[in-house]
Amino acid sequence: MIGIYILLIFFTAFVLSLLLVPLIIKFAKVNKLYDLPDLVTEKNQINPNVLNYESSFDPPRRIHTKPIPRLGGVAIIIGFFSSLIIWKFPLNMVGIFICSFIMFLTGFIDDIKSLSAKFRLFIQVTTSLAVVLISNLQIHSIALSQTTFLQIPFALGLILSTFIIIGAINSINMIDGLDGLAGGVVLIGISLLSYIYFLSTHNLNLLIVFSIPIIGAILGFLKYNTHPSSIFMGDSGSNWLGFMVGVFIILIMNNFTISENISKLDIISNSSMQFIPIISIVLCLSIPIFDTAHVILLRLFEGKNPMKPDKRHFHHSLMKIGFTHSQSVIIVYFLMLFFGILGILPVAYPQYGLTWTPYAGIILLIICITFSVKLNEGFITNLAGYKLFLASQKTTGPRISFILKYWEHLNRYTIYSILLATPFLSDIAPKNVALASAAMCFVMICTVFIRKSDSFFESFIIAISTTILLTANNSNIIWIEIFSNKYNLQEAYNVLFIWLLISTLLFFIVTFKRKYLVIAPTDFLLAILPLILLLLPIEIQNEYKLNIIALRSLVLFAALRTLSKRHNTFFYKVHFICIIALGWIALTSLAGLRLVH
Q1: In this structure, what DSSP letter does residue 535 have?
Q2: Close Cβ partners of 69 (under 8 Å, ≥ 6 residues apart)
């Protein structure tokens, strides 16, 4: 039943947000509710003071060059609340939702008629303090590690909780500077926080009524907010999302769970659950937290207003050194995932002594953000020019082309080998896996003539098919015996995936081009699919080793998407290979097909 609620709430929020955005765009255009670029004044005239900005104190901050509607947050809010009202509304979270709506209204009014910074801060402080008092969200203790706790007095906990919510609101607001950046960052951050929360509590009730509808609503909005954007979320969206992120952080720090009663959902603090170290929570929102702190400190050291906007954020630095709009966004996405994983590792795998990885992540993050500001303007552009210079030389050019050509071939045939080897290494798959293989084989055959190889549906069915293949492969332990010594083939299989991950990342970096970096919102959904495996009951996870399968699926899908953007026919070949592999598993496990010697 929980799984059905997850799907219903997610898709309701997703579909409503997806359908509402075009209507909001039309409404904003009719009423001329635009976010104007710095080069355009309110009267749609060129601002003469900005044309000579190099000599002025504050350079133009906005990146877009034409007026863009800015009420996208309305679609996110409606998608979120409608999905809960329709399917599962938690009565004891009404205080949180009312306060969040106040923050949304403040941002909405600010989108229509600009409010002063002091008034906005006043609303943030009063609303954040109110939700902490109404919902008892004051922090009781901070987990410095999984065994060390710092008890917090009531008054200090009240102040700290209020500060976290205000900080989250402003962090998301400040990072909303590029198309799809704020929405994608919140999507990734909420997903990472949800996963680490589930690892600690094994309770899905809070995620169902909090993070799942947020993820669905953001995905629907990102369809229109990905570069080049046709709408911005505005302050209404960033204020609300920041508020919800701050509240979610406190819920996780206090180990709040929701126990389901007959009549309502009750929020309780469960002290028997494993507490999550604060450093792991921070790394799940690494970029917005550290970028905001870095920029505010710079402004304070220079004697400037810490809340006054400028172009020294991390995403601005990436564009300054030569990355394009899309490249800058995807780099932030990647770093969010990378540092988030470093934070999650000690919680997900406590038996391996990985407590050092979050601290290594903090050091790398500080270095990354600090030195991005120090790099010379056009650094990446000059680097790319040097690469073109090398490629144009008579001696080095052919060698580079030769290396890249066969490097790409190696990655491609590694994927083919993984998929083709799967049915032979799986032996006799469990009946459930065999039935899933037969069903997906039928679907793949029916859709073999879909012409748009980069479509969402084609990517979706290939993602499901490869996950089923990897599950079948992991169902049995296969050994190979050489000179009376037995070797587990799964270990060799893991080495193959590690190689594919490293090779794909390096090849991507060496050959990066703007057209290969265009990320659609559907790519997020497909990347999240393998992680859904980790939300299944522990018994099923252990039976099928789903933690390993989820990681393998992520690596394989990333490699597939990278190569598919370079070659339109690549997905067709993978499609046929999946049909062969799935068919073989179904025949051997259900029909008793055997090779008899």
Answers
A1: G
A2: 24, 25, 28, 29, 33, 34, 35, 230, 231, 232
- Do the beta carbons of residue 527 and residue 519 sit within 8 Å? no
For helices 234-253 and 94-112, angle between their N-to-C axes, nearest 10 degrees: 150
Q: For residue 8, give both structure tokens.
A: 């219903």
Q: Is 204 helix (H, G, I), strand (E, B) or coil?
A: coil
Which residue did the predictor score with more confidence, 236 or 47? 236
Type of residue at 413: Y
- Which residue is listed with tokens 């220079």? 302
Q: What is the mean pLDDT of residues 414-422?
A: 85
Burial of 516 (0-12, 13-18, 19+ CB in 10 A): middle
Nearest CA to 186 out of 521, 556, 535 is that of 521
Between helix 489-510 and helix 396-425 the angle, nearest 10°, is: 150
Average pLDDT over residues 65-80: 86
How many whole angstroms separate alpha carbon 106 and alpha carbon 170? 13
159 within 8 A of 285, measured Cβ to Cβ? no
Residue 169: what residue type?
A: I
Q: Please report which confidence band the pLDDT of residue 107 belongs to, taking 50, 70 and 90 as the band edges.
A: very high
d(CA 361, CA 369): 12
Entry pTM: 0.74
Which pLDDT tens digit goes with each residue over 515-569?
A: 444 455 456 556 666 666 765 666 677 777 777 787 788 888 778 877 776 676 7
Separation of alpha carbons 180 and 196, rounded Å: 24
Query: In the 8-state DSSP scheme, what is residue 511?
Result: T
Alpha carbons 325 and 316: distance in angstroms, whole number: 9
Q: How confident is the model at residue 74 (pLDDT cuts 50, 70, 90)?
A: very high
Average pLDDT over residues 240-252: 94
* Strands, E assignment, 55-205: 68-69, 141-143, 149-151
Task: Convert 557-586 to b/e letters by CB count within 10 Å (16 or more is b).
Answer: bbbbbbbbbeeeebbbebbebbbebbbbbb
Helix and strand counts by DSSP (H, E) for the chain: 24, 8
Tell me which range, 25-34, 478-487, 516-525, is most confidently predicted by mean pLDDT.
Answer: 25-34
Distances from the Cα of 435 to the Cαs of 376, 422, 438, 525, in angstroms?
57, 16, 5, 25
Greater confidence, 509 or 404?
Answer: 404
Q: Where are the beta strands (DSSP E) in 66-132?
A: 68-69
